[in-house]
Design the sequence.
């Protein structure tokens, strides 16, 4: 079933009913932060590296046109092609055109969030080309006909039993129940595909301007088999992935795996520059880069620009109290968690994604762990304000906010009513100091008791304390 | 030059205020690429002498590589046989057609069946040299080329890597200097960093080895060479 960002509230209700999901998210939210903490604990330079990475990305974004043109020139020099695509549709068509040029029947795919954005698999199928995801997690969600639920762990929401049933249903071999056997089964099936495929599509974690190189960072090696065995390698990347040099890359690679999985280094880090050379015994004969904009260039020079620093480590997801409660599918858009809430309005439009910036308690953990220091809460606030100003919220919400604003800008009246409200709640709480039910608060009280206020507002208590100290309150 | 390219670049230039960039600004940007300065290099990589090998091997083992230290090319070939025997593998290897493996004398290896070239589906064990290796994370750097097909790193289930002490550098930045030396600034089709055998945590958040690439990666480290 296709979930949408527009239906976020319904998606959340559904997600909260799924016991399996709660179990896996619970494990993830406990262990991911530990892994990251151990890894960065061994690297005293980590915080300084974060500053450096932020500064490099800021420098690139301020000169993005220059670096992209330099990058493009180097790709061409090494025998590759760069296709600039403004929209998802343009990118899909370009990929199809390349596939058709070699009469492709089967396409293997390494992990690429950009291709998720453009719903490439469905499009290729509609055009008679079979796409096979080769990242084990992506393969699992492809079999399940679901989108990824986590940027780097696409099938994180699936239990082992669910994978057992999925593999049995599709492979019709044996009902493997051990994780190791399931991995071997997946390996065996996909191995054949690498050799059969006509085209291999990968994403890119970075593009290096110095040499026209695309970089992928993986643990499985699927991306390498995907790009070295077929005749054609297509790299799908978005504009903001470019960085100047290998020295810059060296800074990012010290941050990315540690932030993502708590690894000091990914197993495979692969740098690809153009097609096979004349004397190379292996490698693709053609090398294409599909360079996607899809709304990103419009963010430059705006208050949203900083979101383009993202290196997709997913640390913000792993540390987010909202993501770890509802999982990734609830977001109903390509990117999940805090970075998804900040980025999806660009990809699918604010009207569609307007709930996502509200899916935050503003606890700030996302910003605290972001390797490139993206001020995610600040960006979410900007989206909230824009959603309000553009009148994309329903009347009920807008009316509520307007009413609150009316009171909040009349301090005397606000204090009077707040004081009365607090007194009523305190009284209703009784001796226990908890409320089991209260009008308009069922969203809270259906699941737990609401602690009742003590009887006076903070302002009243503060005023009283100041008076007792003999000071005059402002 | 497509319209899309022009429109995208136009929007970017407007967003970043590019029309105000002077020729001097552009020269600075070009220099930022051509003479890229090194950033922060972790202090723990600043080791010398035999400590470099110790750091490399410690990190490589932590990434699930198996490691054998030998002191000669002859011993390295013996270790290849040991590895095959201990893992109950056929006495057959596909090796890089590289002169960097000549001193192991694979052709005199008697009952060991040796083939050279790019990997095919049936290959079970490969043996390759490295271009260099980085102590920082126990990472081996290989480059595609006539003598070093990159598929040997990924297709066979078992990958034996010959690393010599002289291949070692301490930090990533040193490896890039070496890569740039190779082709006078020209980068080969692929540079591969290999930091251990293949694995995946995608099934029930548990790490299983051998997702797609080699299930075993065995480093034969030749000291003093």
Sequence:
């Amino acid at each position: 079933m296709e979930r949408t960002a527009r239906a976020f509230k319904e998606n959340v209700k559904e997600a909260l009913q799924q016991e399996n999901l709660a179990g896996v998210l619970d494990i993830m939210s406990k262990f991911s932060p530990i892994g990251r903490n151990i890894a960065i604990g061994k690297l005293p330079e980590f915080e300084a590296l974060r500053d450096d990475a932020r500064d490099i990305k800021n420098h690139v974004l301020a000169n993005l046109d220059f670096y992209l043109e330099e990058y493009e020139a180097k790709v061409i020099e090494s025998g590759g092609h760069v296709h600039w695509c403004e929209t998802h549709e343009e990118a899909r068509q370009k990929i199809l055109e390349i596939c058709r040029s070699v009469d492709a029947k089967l396409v293997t795919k390494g992990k690429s969030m950009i291709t998720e954005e453009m719903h490439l698999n469905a499009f290729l199928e509609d055009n008679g080309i079979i796409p096979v995801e080769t990242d084990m997690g992506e393969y699992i969600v492809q079999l399940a006909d679901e989108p990824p639920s986590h940027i780097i762990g696409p099938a994180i929401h699936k239990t082992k039993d669910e994978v057992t049933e999925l593999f049995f249903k599709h492979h019709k071999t044996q009902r493997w129940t051990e994780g190791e056997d399931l991995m071997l089964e997946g390996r065996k099936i996909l191995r054949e595909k690498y050799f059969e495929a006509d085209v291999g599509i990968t994403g890119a974690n970075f593009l290096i301007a110095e040499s026209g190189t695309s970089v992928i960072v993986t643990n499985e090696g699927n991306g390498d088999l995907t790009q070295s065995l077929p005749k054609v390698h297509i790299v799908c990347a978005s504009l903001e992935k470019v960085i100047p040099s290998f020295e810059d890359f060296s800074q990012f690679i010290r941050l990315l795996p540690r932030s993502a999985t708590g690894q000091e280094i990914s197993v495979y880090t692969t740098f690809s520059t153009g097609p096979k050379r004349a004397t190379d015994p292996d490698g693709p004969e053609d090398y294409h880069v599909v360079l996607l904009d899809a709304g990103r260039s419009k963010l430059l020079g705006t208050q949203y620009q900083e979101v383009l620093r993202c290196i997709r480590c997913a640390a913000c997801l792993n540390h987010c109290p909202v993501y770890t409660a509802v999982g990734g599918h609830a977001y109903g858009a390509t990117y999940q968690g805090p970075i998804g809430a900040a980025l999806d309005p660009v990809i699918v439009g604010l009207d569609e994604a307007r709930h996502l910036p509200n899916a935050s308690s503003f606890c700030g953990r996302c910003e605290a762990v972001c390797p490139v220091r993206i001020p995610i809460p600040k960006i979410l606030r900007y989206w909230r304000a824009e959603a309000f100003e553009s009148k994309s919220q329903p009347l009920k919400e807008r009316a509520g906010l307007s009413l609150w604003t009316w009171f909040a800008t009349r301090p005397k009246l606000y204090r009077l009513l707040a004081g009365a409200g607090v007194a009523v709640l305190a009284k209703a709480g009784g001796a226990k100091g908890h409320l089991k039910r209260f009008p308009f608060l069922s969203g809270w009280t259906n699941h737990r008791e609401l602690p009742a206020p003590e009887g006076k507002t903070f302002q009243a208590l503060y005023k009283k304390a100041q008076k007792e100290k003999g000071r005059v309150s402002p | 030059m497509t319209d899309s390219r022009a429109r995208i670049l136009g929007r970017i230039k407007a967003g970043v205020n590019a029309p105000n960039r002077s020729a001097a600004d552009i020269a600075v940007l070009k220099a930022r690429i051509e003479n890229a300065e090194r950033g922060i290099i972790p202090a723990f990589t600043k080791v010398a002498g035999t400590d470099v090998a110790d750091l490399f091997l410690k990190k490589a083992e932590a990434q699930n590589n198996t490691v054998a230290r030998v002191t000669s090319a002859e011993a390295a070939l013996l270790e290849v046989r040991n590895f095959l025997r201990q893992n109950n593998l056929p006495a057959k290897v596909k090796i890089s057609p590289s002169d960097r493996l000549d001193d192991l004398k694979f052709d005199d290896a008697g009952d060991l069946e040796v083939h050279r070239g790019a990997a095919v589906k049936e290959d079970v064990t490969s043996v390759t040299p490295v271009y260099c290796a980085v102590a920082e994370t126990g990472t081996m750097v290989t480059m595609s080329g006539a003598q070093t097909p990159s598929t040997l790193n990924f297709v066979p289930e078992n990958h034996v890597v010959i690393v010599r002490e002289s291949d070692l550098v301490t930090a990533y930045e040193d490896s890039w200097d070496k890569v740039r030396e190779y082709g006078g600034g020209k980068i080969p089709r692929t540079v591969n960093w290999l930091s251990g055998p293949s694995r995946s945590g995608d099934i029930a958040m548990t790490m299983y080895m051998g997702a797609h690439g080699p299930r075993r990666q065995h480093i034969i480290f030749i000291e003093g060479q």
Observations:
- The mean pLDDT of chain B is 95.
- The first strand of chain B starts at residue 66 and ends at 70.
- Residues 3-16 of chain B form the longest helix (14 residues).
- Chain B touches chain A through 81 residues (CB under 8 Å).
